[in-house]
Write a structure and sequence with these properties.
The complex is a heterodimer of chains A (278) and B (349). Chain A is of the alpha+beta class. Chain A has seven helices and six strands. The longest helix of chain A is centred in the C-terminal third of the chain and has 29 residues. Chain B is of the alpha/beta class and 349 residues long. In chain B, helix 5 packs parallel to helix 6. Classes of the chains: A alpha+beta (278), B alpha/beta (349).
């Protein structure tokens, strides 16, 4: 038995930009029944199904946009055979999307799926990209970015990833602090806040997670506001500018994400697995 | 010119192209790239209003008549500035070269300004070409692609010593305006194509030059904004910003405009249609009508008629010494100086 999920057709005009699409366009994308689990009654290890693989892929983010590749619509199909052979196909908004970011997403997808119990062989395929062959081959051979682009790329990508994680921390700071300021907290007073004092929210969890990934303090006692480059806490005088920068960073990421979504919709008439409108 | 509600706007399209990306111009063996490139551009056009979309065939190669109609007759543009993109590895005669652009410009005196380009990796030969282009076409500006591949090199920075030689040459030759592509990705590998820190350094070291950052560094407008606010000779080129966001993502467009008005200010923002990706008509009309869509944007600086006149044409006219007829100019004192509070915020940091 092979469980396969493929991208369903979009409801609306494929060229139509996101904000102009009607409500409910992305409904009907639930996982079909019978797409998960191991073959009935057969002994042996429990195999994940395509829905479980898709759920695992939610942990893979576009480093630039700081959003899961699933909700961005980058996963075009996901197939798991009865033996646990898994294939994931990815797609991007343009033929020339930056190969360094593309490489990170393909490699991260490969890693999260490989780590799942019951998965046997893993293949992650990037479609329709000028560097598809180099990336797919390089990830499959676990060669790293520099070796995959022989003679073309001198460095690995961790610094680039960290750079964008710091941006994600700044954007997350805006998400967490904006409601606090709206509720009447004077911005300079935020310098005294700890993460534990901020009201629980998804944005706060996300901010903590991004800070952890950077090795920055993320516990309840850690300051709410820090310089993401150094981890140092902020003086109250520096808070207004810090928040202003956080806001701009968030706008930048969201605007870029908007362009990428628009391009993807123009390029493909089908919605990605797990794609969500922003 | 454009007129609406009794206000007259002088329109300078400071970033547009006249390309040939049809199969007859594809380099043998590089067809995939040539085709991929123009398809990628075509997808950008998909972010504009549906009634302005072209077929891929038309998009690959539009005619001189198409351009004159779309830009000047229908598009309200008074003066258009060609920004060349060579890509000769994929396109036999280049994608849109200084020569191709200037040949069209020479047929229509007063309508076009033909910018040229350089690449520090071309060394002494490139310096000679630059001088020749300035003498022949009167170029007052250049368009630079720091992420462009060249003979095994995957990019460069404005701060490279070789680039400084060219910037010095620009000053000597009378070139005033350096348009730098810092925007949506064009396959950067080694070099980080969006990083704007090299513009920061070059702008400090070359005070006699203006640096117009095209596409405002997307996806890193924050880096661009923090830099531009401190450099008086750095400008925000709005190509792609208006074309790519105003219709498709109006809320993000409003936020990006708000951020740019806050950090950079209306005196240092320039309109560019990016034709033939998008026609100027809908962009000019929409921009003149534009306002923030709702209360949630109340913290951002407002943009009034005077500011729109500056962005659509007067700022670029100043950069390029374009004579603006009196009826389009602002009266003395019209248009407040941009973003004073913001400067305080930054200097207080």
């Amino acid at each position: 038995m092979t469980a396969e999920l493929t991208a369903p057709a979009r409801g609306g005009d494929p060229g139509g930009p996101g904000e102009h699409s009607g409500p409910g366009e992305h409904s009907g994308r639930s996982v079909p029944p019978g797409a998960s689990g191991s073959p009935g009654g057969a002994p042996g290890p429990v195999r994940p199904g395509a829905p479980q693989v898709l759920a695992a892929l939610e942990a893979v983010r576009d480093p630039e946009l700081d959003e899961p590749i699933t909700s961005l619509g980058f996963v075009s199909s996901c197939t798991v055979s009865g033996d646990g052979d898994t294939q994931v196909r990815l797609r991007l908004p343009t033929y020339f999307c930056a190969p360094n970011f593309a490489f990170l997403m393909v490699a991260d997808a490969y890693d999260v799926v490989s780590a799942m119990d019951g998965v046997r062989a893993v293949e992650v395929v990037l479609e329709d990209h000028f560097a598809s062959d180099a990336i797919n081959g390089g990830v499959a051979a676990r060669a790293g970015f520099a070796r995959s682009f022989d003679g073309e790329a001198v460095g690995e990508l961790q610094e680039l990833r960290a750079d964008f994680l710091r941006k994600a921390v700044m954007a997350g700071t805006d998400q967490v602090c904006r409601p606090l300021v709206a509720a009447g907290v004077e911005p300079p007073a935020l310098a005294e806040f700890t993460l534990g004092q901020a009201p629980p929210s998804r944005a706060l969890e996300r901010l903590r997670q991004r800070r952890s990934e950077l090795g920055l303090p993320a516990g309840d006692d850690a300051p709410l506001l820090i310089d993401p480059a150094t981890g140092a806490s902020l003086h109250s005088d520096a808070v207004p500018l810090h928040l202003r920068r956080a806001q701009t960073t968030r706008v930048s990421i969201e605007a870029n994400s908007g362009i990428c979504r628009g391009m993807l919709r123009h390029r493909y008439s089908t919605a990605g697995l797990g794609e969500e409108d922003q | 010119m454009y007129e609406k509600d009794g206000e007259k706007y002088f329109v300078v399209d400071s970033h547009m192209h006249y390309w040939n990306a049809a199969p007859d111009n594809w380099v043998e063996g590089a067809e995939e790239y040539a085709n991929g490139w123009i398809n990628c551009f075509h997808a950008y056009q998909g972010l504009g209003p549906p009634e302005t979309h072209w077929s891929i065939e038309h998009f690959q190669k539009y005619s001189e008549d198409d351009l004159m109609k779309d830009v000047f007759q229908d598009g309200y543009v008074d003066v258009a500035i060609f920004q060349p993109t060579y890509l000769t590895e994929w396109y036999k005669e280049g994608f849109n070269t200084t020569e191709r652009n200037a040949a069209l410009g020479e047929k229509h005196p007063g309508k076009f300004i033909a910018n040229t380009r350089w690449d520090p990796r071309d060394g002494d030969e490139g310096l000679k070409t630059l001088q020749r282009n300035v003498e022949r076409y009167g170029s007052k500006g250049v368009k630079l692609y720091t992420a462009e591949w060249n003979n095994g090199s995957r990019g460069w920075k404005l701060t490279d010593p070789g680039a400084y030689r060219y910037l010095e040459a620009c000053q000597d030759l009378g070139i005033k305006n350096i348009h730098v592509h810092k925007g949506p990705t064009i396959w950067p590998l080694d070099k980080d194509a969006f990083d704007v820190s090299d513009v920061d350094h070059a702008a400090t070291d070359f005070q006699g030059l203006n640096f117009i950052v095209e596409h405002v560094g997307l996806p890193r407008i924050e880096d661009f904004c923090f830099m531009a606010t401190q450099e008086p000779n750095v400008y925000a080129g709005l190509s792609v910003v208006i074309g790519g966001l105003m219709y498709a993502r109006p809320k993000f467009f409003a936020k990006v405009m708000g951020e740019l008005l806050f950090w950079v200010g209306e005196d240092k923002m320039t309109f560019g249609s990016d034709y033939g990706i998008w026609e100027p008509k809908w962009q000019v009309e929409g921009f003149v009508d534009w306002d923030y869509p709702g209360e949630e944007f109340s913290d951002y600086p407002r943009l009034g008629t005077a500011g729109k006149k500056k962005i659509l044409g007067l700022n670029a006219a100043r950069l390029y010494d374009i004579e603006v007829p009196a009826e389009f100019r602002l009266d003395a004192g019209e248009g407040t100086p941009a973003a004073q509070d913001d400067a305080q915020l930054v200097s207080g940091a």
